[in-house]
Amino acid sequence: MLLRRLLTALAGAAALVSLLAVSGCGEKPTPEAVAEEFITATLEGDSDKAIKMFRVSDVAKEQQMSDTDADVVKGKIKSKIEHQAEKIKAAGGFKDLKADPAQYSDDKKTANVVVKYKVGGKEQQERLTLKLVEDEWVPKL
Q1: Is 65 a member of any domain?
Q2: HSE-up (13 A, CA, CB side) for residue 73
Q3: N or C: which end of the chain has fewer CB within 10 A?
């Protein structure tokens, strides 16, 4: 009886480890999921998250911007996102956010995604272009 319980517990543990190993190797987020996460961050006014998702620091390095110029760009993005979020909040917030299927470039390194949502009962949409950077989808500035 004790051996049976031990074997059952070991089998359960092995199944759990297998499940965790498989789920740990899950696929990277799709362009649609990244677009929804990004648009949600902007609509909620989470400018820090949006700036991080944009990888503004990487873009600044690529463009050989000074730290001052990079800070100006971040400040403008932050201001615009927070201003838009205030307007959306004043209108009652947003709901029913959903991304349409991505339209990929021929080389599959960029994708365009239309994200639709409602503000005050009125349907809105944003078109977002994402690029594949190090196996991750990143919104383009």
Answers
A1: yes
A2: 19
A3: N
* Residue range 13-44, pLDDT digits in tens: 333 333 333 344 567 899 999 999 999 999 99
Name the token pair of 87: 């307007």
Domain count, the chain: 1
The model scores a pTM over 0.90: no
Q: CB-hemisphere CA count at 13 Å for 32?
A: 8
CATH of the domain at 131: 3.10.450.50
Angle made by CA atoms 72, 88, 57, in degrees to the nearest 5: 25
**CB under 8 Å, gap of 24 or more: what pairs does 55-64 form?**
55/133, 55/138, 56/141, 58/133, 59/141
The Cα 65–Cα 97 span in angstroms is 35
Neighbours of 53 (CB within 10 A): 19
